[in-house]
Inverse folding.
């Protein structure tokens, strides 16, 4: 460039490091499309018996035009109180199933997973870019991989992300959170999944942090964060269940038998190695690069890590909350970006939408019938005569949802809150192979058949008993049929051992 005095002066054009090159999609759209496509075609999303029960419940509510308040499914607790706290998820799942069968259900959850991945990448991308952003997002999504199941918690993940992101960005911008943004999220979240309680706790934690940071201002520092709390509490009871909607998660988590359910058991690193890598990587980065994490953020990260180690189901909290809390301090060390990437005009959105449409069309083109799996033993159930299906059954816990979907009333299913601790303890004793207790319960309930997992300790006892005959067996389930006639007391069982007290 030549200035007015004729001198040559070198200049450089300012490069916006936040601008995505026009020939590629922004990272958040890439993440959304890839994760959505992976979820749409992943057969593992149907590897949970709860999926079947949720669709059956949603279909019942669509047919009746009302949210159910009593158990319509089991024969053991038929008509007893049941709070369908995930009713909105169940209705959405049933609508998807009605519209396009299992393909529709897969696309519903693919949309939720893609939205979650895109939102997380976009919000973390406010502070991180390039390789650091990719590493954080990959570790986060890797932790979430085992949780990619067609169940209500997956529909709640985009809401968890948006809620946490609003709190994190409000703190970074030095402003209170927007109740206009938070209120609709909470209304939907409270009717989709019980994890909304964690959102309320997170709001309270951020409010306490604001008060501590600005403690010289006294109560005035807390008020901007405190006054939305009662509004959010009101949002949680905008539900067919009213105030009970707010108290339900607390009542559920107070049950003593939850530890016997896989997702409530401690996390197994062999089943989720990404979580271990994420934890070790976090320790390495904090020590090696000297990342200064605000004490409240660090405590919250430790809290969600603690919850995950104790209950595997909480890995979703860690995978979404931890990256958002750590993005700003990590960005300060890795010299990340200071604004959200992706200002490339409208075409990236159109390109991503076109790719999503291709994925949807491809998924629709793939035949998707009712799968035979460890949670849905459709082949085994097909060998049970229709007249026998109408009689009392003793079933494996994980088969309950599939039986409900198939029109069979189960002995038990995954709705722990319906059955309670006493009944679940009784079931665990029966399933554990207590032949004396099983004979007593079979006589009391009139079991006509059983459908159990091949590894069930009860199988050998049934094979030895003259009262039972094996009808069918495969790698997913074994079916026994009662021979009829008088019930035989198993050898070694006294009258006291051969009785069980308590009724539902």
């Amino acid at each position: 460039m030549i200035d007015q005095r004729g001198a040559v002066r070198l200049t450089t054009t300012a490069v916006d490091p936040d601008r995505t090159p026009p020939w590629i999609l922004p990272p958040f759209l890439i993440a959304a499309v890839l994760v959505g496509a992976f979820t749409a075609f992943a057969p593992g999303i149907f590897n949970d018996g709860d999926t079947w029960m949720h669709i059956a419940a949603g279909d019942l509510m669509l047919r009746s035009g009302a949210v159910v308040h009593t158990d319509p499914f089991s024969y053991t607790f038929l008509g007893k109180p049941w709070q369908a706290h995930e009713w909105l998820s169940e209705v959405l799942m049933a609508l998807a199933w009605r519209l396009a069968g299992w393909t529709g259900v897969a696309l519903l959850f693919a949309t939720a997973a893609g939205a979650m991945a895109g939102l997380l990448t976009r919000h973390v991308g406010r502070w991180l870019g390039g390789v650091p952003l990719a590493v954080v997002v990959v570790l986060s999504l890797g932790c979430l991989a085992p949780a990619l199941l067609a169940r209500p918690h997956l529909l709640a993940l985009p809401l968890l992300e948006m809620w946490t992101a609003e709190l994190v960005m409000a703190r970074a911008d030095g402003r209170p959170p927007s109740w206009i943004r938070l209120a609709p999220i909470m209304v939907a979240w409270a009717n989709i999944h019980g994890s909304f309680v964690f959102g309320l706790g997170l709001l309270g934690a951020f409010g306490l942090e604001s008060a501590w940071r600005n403690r010289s201002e006294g109560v005035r520092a807390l008020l901007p964060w405190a006054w939305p709390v009662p509004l959010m509490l009101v949002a949680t009871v905008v539900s067919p269940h009213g105030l009970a909607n707010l108290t339900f998660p607390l009542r559920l988590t107070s049950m003593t038998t939850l530890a016997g359910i896989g997702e409530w058991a401690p996390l197994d690193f062999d089943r989720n190695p990404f979580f271990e890598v994420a934890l070790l990587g976090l320790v390495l980065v904090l020590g090696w690069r000297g990342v200064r994490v605000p004490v409240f953020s660090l405590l919250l990260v430790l809290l969600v890590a603690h919850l995950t180690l104790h209950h595997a189901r909480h890995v979703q909290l860690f995978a979404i909350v931890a990256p958002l809390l750590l993005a700003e301090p990590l960005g300060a060390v890795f010299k990340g970006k200071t604004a959200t990437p992706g200002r490339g005009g409208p075409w990236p959105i159109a390109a991503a939408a076109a790719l999503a449409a291709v994925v949807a069309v491809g998924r629709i083109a793939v035949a998707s019938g009712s799968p035979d799996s460890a949670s849905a033993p459709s082949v085994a159930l097909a060998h049970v005569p229709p007249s026998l299906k109408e009689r009392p059954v003793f079933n494996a816990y994980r088969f309950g949802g599939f039986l409900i979907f198939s029109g069979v009333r189960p002995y038990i299913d995954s709705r722990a809150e319906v059955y309670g601790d006493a009944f679940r303890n009784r079931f665990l004793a029966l399933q554990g192979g207590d032949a004396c207790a099983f004979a007593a319960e079979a006589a009391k309930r009139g079991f006509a058949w059983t459908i159990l997992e091949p590894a069930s300790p009860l199988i050998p006892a049934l094979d030895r008993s003259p009262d039972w005959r094996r009808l069918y067996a495969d790698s997913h389930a074994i079916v026994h049929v009662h021979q009829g006639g008088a019930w035989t007391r198993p050898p070694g069982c006294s009258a006291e051992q051969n009785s069980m007290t308590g009724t539902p």
User: Anything to note?
Assistant: The chain has a mean pLDDT of 86. The radius of gyration is 27 Å. The chain has 20 helices and four strands. The chain has two domains: 27-193+256-360, 378-482.
